[in-house]
């Protein structure tokens, strides 16, 4: 059986990043784009694909894409908030300093 690595792609028409596994949609991260800011509003992984770390793969790729595009990130989605909290060295700088408290990202430690 051929199993390929999960693929993450931006689907701007649907305003979401999508993760596929072997050509099947496994999940998505919805966003709203406002000028230089991207707001992540909801992340979902299909139950058939849970337990494989796909949510983290999806969010990492979405945050990397936001960085590459020079966007600030507003993590309204609790999953994205937790991911940033667990990886502050890589991603906390994407959230504007004056907005971090709103997302409980103002504490120094934050690893779960």
From TrEMBL:
Domain N-acetyltransferase: 1-106, 9-96
Protein known as: N-acetyltransferase
Organism of origin: Microbispora siamensis
Highest classification ranks of the organism: Bacteria, Bacillati, Actinomycetota, Actinomycetes, Streptosporangiales
């Amino acid at each position: 059986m051929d199993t390929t690595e999960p693929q993450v792609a931006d689907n701007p028409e649907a305003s979401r990043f999508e993760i596929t596994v072997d050509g099947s949609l496994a999940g998505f991260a919805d966003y709203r784009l406002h000028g230089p800011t991207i707001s992540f509003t909801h992340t979902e992984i299909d139950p058939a694909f849970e337990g494989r770390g796909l949510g983290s793969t999806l969010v990492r790729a979405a945050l990397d894409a936001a960085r590459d595009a020079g966007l600030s990130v507003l993590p309204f989605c609790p999953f994205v908030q937790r991911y940033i909290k667990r990886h502050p060295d890589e991603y906390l700088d994407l959230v504007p300093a004056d907005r971090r408290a709103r997302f409980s990202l103002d504490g120094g430690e934050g690893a779960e």
